[in-house]
Amino acid sequence: MSALNIKKGSTSHSAYDLRDPHAEIAGRHTLTVLTDNDPGVLARVAGLFTGRGYNIESLTVAEVDHEGHLSRFTIVTTGTPTVIEQIKAQLGRIVPVHEVHDLTVEGASVERELALFKVAGTGEKRVEALRLADIFRANVVDSTLESFVFEITGTPEKIDAFADLMRPLGLADVARTGVAALPRGI
Amino acid sequence: MSRQMTGAKMVVQALKDQGVEVVFGYPGGAVLPIYDEIFQQNDIRHILVRHEQGAVHMAEGYARSTGKPGVVLVTSGPGATNAVTGLTDALMDSIPLVVLTGQVPTFMIGTDGFQEADTVGITRPCTKHNWLVKDTAKLAETIHQAFHVATHGRPGPVLIDIPKDVQFATGPYSAVREARVAHYQPKVKGDLARITELVELMEKAERPVFYTGGGVINSGPGASQLLRELADATGFPVTSTLMGLGAYPASGKGWIGMLGMHGLYEANLAMHGCDLMINLGARFDDRITGRIADFSPRSKKAHVDIDPSSINKVIHVDLPIVGDVGHVLEDLLKVWKSRGRKVNKDGLAKWWGQIEQWKLKKCLTYKGSDKVIKPQYALERLEALTRGRDRYITTEVGQHQMWAAQFLGFDAPNRWMTSGGLGTMGYGFPASIGVQIAHPDALVINVAGEASWLMNMQEMGTATQFRTPVKQFILNNERLGMVRQWQQLLHGERYSHSWSESLPDFVKLAEAFGWKGIQCKDPKQLDDAIMEMLDHDGPVLFDCLVEKHENCFPMIPSGRPHNEMLLGDASTEGAIQAGGAVLV
Lengths: 186, 584
What we know:
The complex is a heterodimer.
Chain A: E1 27-36, H1 41-51, E2 58-65, E3 70-79, H2 81-93, E4 97-102, E5 109-120, H3 123-135, E6 139-143, E7 147-154, H4 156-166, E8 171-176, E9 180-183
Antiparallel strand pairs in A: 1-3, 1-4, 2-3, 5-7, 5-8, 5-9, 6-7
Chain B: E1 4-6, H1 7-17, E2 22-25, H2 32-39, E3 45-48, H3 52-66, E4 70-74, H4 78-82, H5 84-92, E5 97-103, H6 119-123, E6 129-132, H7 139-151, E7 157-163, H8 164-168, E8 170-172, H9 192-204, E9 208-212, H10 214-218, H11 221-234, E10 238-240, E11 255-258, H12 265-273, E12 276-280, H13 286-289, E13 300-305, E14 319-322, H14 325-338, H15 345-359, H16 375-386, E15 391-395, H17 399-407, E16 416-417, H18 428-438, E17 443-449, H19 450-454, H20 460-465, E18 471-476, H21 481-490, H22 506-512, E19 516-520, H23 526-535, E20 540-545, H24 578-581
Parallel strand pairs in B: 2-3, 2-4, 4-5, 5-7, 6-7, 9-10, 9-12, 10-11, 12-13, 13-14, 15-16, 15-17, 17-18, 18-20, 19-20
Antiparallel strand pairs in B: 1-8
Helix pairs in contact in B: 1-2, 1-7, 3-5, 3-18, 9-14, 11-14, 12-15, 16-17, 16-23
């Protein structure tokens, strides 16, 4: 391939040089998508991202309206403004999708993620872990003589920071839910 | 009180209530209950195909020539997987289809049962939407929703997977009007402020061009009518994609021919040099745009499309209008008329002067011969001998397809059925049967290459059984002509596997199926042979032996802009740069 001297920005899956993906700046966007809670809707959304080569940083979904049979997806993705517009339009095309919003550009929003941290250790490290958990307002949801499981809620950045602190103190396992988000106000 | 009936009966009842007259299908274990119901009624005609891919292409031909959705019924497992190519073809070209597949009974799903396949999983990316119906009570409503989704917004194929126990079980039948479809109602009216903005641009434009696509055809005959009215009243030139041929008549005064990779010189240069491009229902496909960075560099671009995801997907446009082409054209005409029917007369006169200059290139010129039939000559004669007849043309994929688009003229929509987006070899023959089923008395011709045609030749039996007098006009160069052309231009004339070895005797093959077979290799006998084909009341296999090494021009090589077209053999030396070789 290199012999052909294909210029950067050419895309291998398309017939021509498409737009140069380096010309625009890629950013992180949080999308919220309201859908019918139909079987296969998760596969449709996930398949759209893989099939068209978009990124997923995190994806959460659950039924939010049992009567109305509706689910809400919160998807964190990265892309240039053009790509993000395309992702929104492609999501909107899926038949069971009711609404698509880009919370990153449509005014203020709140984002929260829940994580569970298993930290193993004894002595001073164990005490330090508990002290830091208190500062981060993490709850202890399981405890043995050699370990804790902390539950922490916050922005992804806060959870990352907590993980950095726990690592030298005996961090054994992490489970994260991915971001759930809603716009602020009415 | 709703009527109780079995799932199998519901299928037939729902199809009747949706106005379905024809189903293309092939029976199998998982659809036996539905076939049993089909046996016991006479309202819906079933066309037995010879392969499920053929069924889907026939339904596509039916849909594209009538504007109504095509309906397919196949069994589980291999029946469903054989339908996948047709579904993808219909998705790429926005053709409304409703495909019903049988499935193993619900209690066997997931056990790798006999003829089980994850049909909704496999077909999710190649349908507009699909459903697995696990409850008979929901079956009728799902079928009604399926017709709604297939035909509203940007049309496309949908699939309903029906397990065998759901077909046997009894449940309440829901009528069409009871089906919940409220949530899927794509916007058809365009934004009036933007339409007015477009009219302002049209009033001032010096070098405007209408770039029309399959969306005009899909919007219905009314949209084609409005396009003609608007184009003729404004005097703007009209070019079209492969998919949109016939929306504006080839005999119309604004017509400047098809654009794109094998489009006309004048059409591509008009696209390159225009100052206002009005895209009506086309999608800036890579066969149209050439090199993106140099695509129509000095124009304002307006884009009318019913699918918001088509906007800014490939080309950034200045004025997007989301809506149905027909509705938008109606408003566009109204606003333009109410503001005094203004155009830039001086600018337009100069623009047409330029276009007439480009036309003098006569880009479709080819070297004639009185020894061998040139493929272009064969199509010129076919055009001359069928002009004035209500003629439907289908094609396979390759050089013959491009020549057909260049040399045949289309004056009405829904008369030209070709696989554009997916480029499916083997499409044209079954599609021609589907067209003929919809229009029993019309002249239906499939312009084919011998290699494509062989891909679905099993449908000869279908044509014989259902007495469809389809004419298969095969331009036989004993080559995969387009592959050969690319190998010549960019792979050092190494013709790797691009010739048709061990071809059948097409005349004997025709006779074996009860068809008429004609072979012609002498240009002097061509007219008589074509007339013999046209006069025969039955299917004809016409083996037209043509020049084996003819290349299709004009051509925009991969990775080049519109104004760097190749016009003939002399211009091909080193035409495709290394970077272009990687492109399709």
